[in-house]
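Reopening this ticket.

The earlier resolution said the output was attached, but the attachment link was broken on my side. Pasting everything inline this time so it's all in one place.
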Amino acid sequence: MEFPSDVLTLDVDAHVATLWLDREEARNAMGGALWRDLPLAAAAVSSVKDIRVLIIAAKGPHFSVGLDLKEFGGGFTSPATSKSRAASNAQSYAGVRAMQASVTSIADLAVPVIAAIHGYCIGGGVDLVSACDLRLCASDAKFSVRETKVAIVADLGSLQRLPKIIGAGHVAELAYTGKDIDAARALAIGLVNAVFDTRDDLLAGARELASEIARNSPLAVQGTKAVLAANDGRSVDDGLEFVARWNTMYLQSNDLREAMTAFVEKRPPVFHGD
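Inline output:
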């Protein structure tokens, strides 16, 4: 699939797309080009009806070493300009909000997103994978909510999304200390669903999981993701009412008819998402 970017590559194989962090020479450090192109990649995925699952993976030895401090570092120490302090602060705020929106574009995708992580996954890398639905990693993976070690409060989603994944106590430990944790600890606290021996095994496992999801009705899978997201901030009863409305809208689908027919005919169903 053609996608013009210097830092991302998008491949599509049948119903599964893979978005590659593709800045190997910089260990996939996250600079302005990444924050600009990530929402464009999300829009490209959304535009292709046949895509049912997205994998986010990385080329090179590391998933991401986080924010590109060489690119952004000058912004923290630059000399005074003719702008007022208020104008400079407003510009900084707008920049942070734009990067937050970039990560959120992945969380907002209708299709499930699987992160396949190897090597370092630091700072902004954790922000990105916490916006995914599922996380898998290789045994060499190292995770770190590193921002306190460089005198920053993590502001791109880790502090908001991780408590729903691993629990508040684990988030506090990782965020206050900035420590690295290995794949075994990530699995133990529920940050990842599975650990694979090698990067190649990881990518194969991610594709196998994506294919398993893609074989199901895309209407049902995307509806399930929407219902899970709608549970945030709702009571159980409100959540039940939401799913009742959802199924009232979408239950009578051709996919459901295909599922029933395939069951009677004792064959695997073939879903088309309508």
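Reporter confirms the inline version is readable. The longest strand covers residues 8-13. The chain has a mean pLDDT of 93.
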